[in-house]
What we know:
Chain B: It comes from Homo sapiens. Chain B: Residues 1-90 form the Ig-like domain. Chain B: One of its GO terms (cellular component) is plasma membrane. The complex is a heterodimer. In chain A, strand 4 (34-39) and strand 5 (45-51) form a beta hairpin. In chain A, the strands form 2 sheets. In chain A, strands 2, 4, 5, 6, 9, 10 and 11 form a 7-stranded mixed beta sheet that branches. In chain A, strands 1-3-8-7 form a 4-stranded antiparallel beta sheet, with no helix packed on it. Chain A is built from no helices and 11 strands. Chain A is an all-beta fold. By secondary structure, chain B is mainly β. Chain B is 0% helix and 43% strand. Chain B contains no helices and 9 strands. In chain B, strands 1, 3, 4, 7, 8 and 9 form a 6-stranded mixed beta sheet that branches. A 3-stranded antiparallel beta sheet of chain B has the order 2-6-5, with no helix packed on it. In chain B, strand 5 and strand 6 form a beta hairpin. The model of chain B has no long low-confidence stretch (mean pLDDT 96). At the A-B interface, strand 5 and strand 10 of A face strand 3, strand 7 and strand 8 of B.
Amino acid sequence: EVQLVESGGGLVQPGGSLRLSCAASGFTFSSYWMSWVRQAPGKGLEWVANIKQDGSEKYYVDSVKGRFTISRDNAKNSLYLQMNSLRAEDTALYYCAREYFWAREYWGQGTLVTVSS
Amino acid sequence: QSALTQPASVSGSPGQSITISCTGTSSDVGGYNYVSWYQQHPGKAPKLMIYEVSNRPSGVSNRFSGSKSGNTASLTISGLQAEDEADYYCSSYTSSSTPWVFGGGTKLTVL
């Protein structure tokens, strides 16, 4: 059974940093592109970033470029999102997702990031 | 404002069919067959319902179907059931600087 479990969310002050993790199991992690998608409270979905199987390609939504870094450790079956210079508008539930044929096939339950003073 | 435009809400009675539209441009929906649809129940993670415009993942009911015409993609749900009441989001690849975009979401109410 495919499982994606996010962790690392919490309350952080504006300008602060957080590192999100996503532990994957039930599939060959190194064979799939992986994504982060976020959802602000009461709002819609926003794609944040994705990363190729070997980490050689990474893409970001414009609003996080230069502040967020996506990475992965295939030996640990883990996906990460390093978030720096956090802003109030980054407050959201962050989901990791496994990609499949240009779509997000499996999703975790999300980890909540709140940016507030 | 979302890059893809969806109606804020649609409704239908049990047994009826409804269609949710997702309008983009030639740089996204119209230019690529990489449109996907997601269902999200309150407090739950999204679930993939359609990928590559019209393909259903294993386990998704054949009451759900997808199509595309020009710059508009559509999700049709036939034989509406109470459990279909949820938010639905479309997504597309785009040639812009942000490669993936979602629609603003559509709330489906089963009357």
